[in-house]
Amino acid sequence: MHYLYGPVPSRRLGFSLGIDPFLKKSCNHNCIYCQLGNKKPLGFEKIEGVEPQIIEEELYTFFKDGGIADYITFSGRGEPTLWAHLGRMVKFVVDNFKHKKLAILTNGSTLWRKDIRVEIEKADLVVPTISSPDRDTYLRLHRPNRNDDFERYKNGLIKFCSEFKGEIWAEVMLVEGVNDSVEQLKKLAVFLYSLPLSYIDINTPVRPPAEKWVVPPDEDKIKLACKLFGPKCRVVGKFSPPSPRALEIANLANTIFDILKRRPEQVSNIANVLGIDESKVDEALNALVAKKLVMKTSDKYFRIQHNAQ
Ligand code: SF4
Predict the structure, then answer these.
(1) Which residue, judged by its Cα, is nearest atom 6 of ligand 1?
(2) What is the CATH number of the domain that holds 288?
(3) What is the CATH number of the domain that holds 63?
(4) Fewest Cβ atoms nearer than 10 Å: which of 9, 75, 76, 165?
């Protein structure tokens, strides 16, 4: 499988089978916390990316071979709503895998576009990023394409939320000194509460960010944000490993390699998300390092070697 990854035991989605429709980072933002590194943001033009037939075949093969997944999730190396074939692929998943839930993780900045709202209207869950209470914070945090506009982004979110029939969870990424002041959190809380959200998930940059100075707020700030955001708020924590289905992940090294294709990780976090012992992760990582597919960085993260992409 080249463009499917996982299923990864996701902290929020159970077993999530990811779809990455891009060959490299393809995004109209260049967030300071992005784990894919720095890259000039693209515009709002649709991107050809991977041919949809290839992903359709991979999905058929995955489920024909007994693959397990609670969610089929579009995310990957960029902004999935910019993929030229998203509408076709949403229809394909809905028509062919009725028993699976379909999720789309988006930076939210394209929802002002009617064509994109229509393309994703049949999804079960959409998770837009909503981390900025004002234009200055939005520009500083996301460093969007110069054609992006904060008011248009905000109005797009409001419009989308008023039309969409599935669930919407907000993802709030908090960065110390950028969007964690009491005033910013209060203002953001007002906006979040005006939207029909099922959950408000607070996330923090835990993986190597695009900018080295980016760090998570301290625990008190996160607690304060949670208090202000109210009962729908969840702090994205470690995935609890309850499921014996983790044992069904047959090829651990391949699974880990798929995880590392998306982002660098540490042993402990891989063990947490897979619900297995760190020693097993170590063993699989050593095999990948020996094959020169993966390297260990000085800050104890593992990332795939460039020539292994
Ligand atoms: S974090 Fe997501 S939205 Fe931000 S630049 Fe990276 S891929 Fe794009």
Answers:
(1) 34
(2) 1.10.10.10
(3) 3.20.20.70
(4) 165
Considering the domain boundaries, does residue 76 fall inside one? Answer: yes
The 3-state secondary structure of the chain reads CCCEEEEEEECCCEEEEEECCCCCCECCCCCCCCCCCCCCCCCCCCECCCCHHHHHHHHHHHHHCCCCCCEEEECCCECHHHECCHHHHHHHHHHHCCCCEEEEEECCCCCCCHHHHHHCCCCCEEEEECCCCCHHHHHHHHCCCCCCCHHHHHHHHHHHHHHCCCEEEEEEECCCCCCCCHHHHHHHHHHHHCCCCCEEEEECCCCCCCCCCCCCCCHHHHHHHHHHHCCCEEECCCCCCCCHHHHHCCCHHHHHHHHHHHCCECHHHHHHHHCCCHHHHHHHHHHHHHCCCEEECCCCCEEECHHHC
Is the minimum distance from the CB of 78 to ligand 1 under 6 angstroms?
A: yes
Of 211, 237, 263, the domain-final residue: 237
The pLDDT of residue 247 is above 60 = no
Q: Of 204, 237, 270, which residue is a domain's last?
A: 237
User: What value does the mean pLDDT take over residues 220-249?
Assistant: 73
What digits encode the pLDDT tens for the residues 279-309?
Answer: 888 888 887 887 778 888 878 899 888 765 5
**Ligand 1 contact, 31 CB (< 6 A):** yes
Residue of the CA atom closest to atom 3 of ligand 1: 107
pLDDT value of position 22: 93
Range of the domain at 176: 4-237
Number of the ligand 1 atom closest to the C-alpha atom of 142: 4
For residues 202 and 278, membership in a common domain is answered with: no
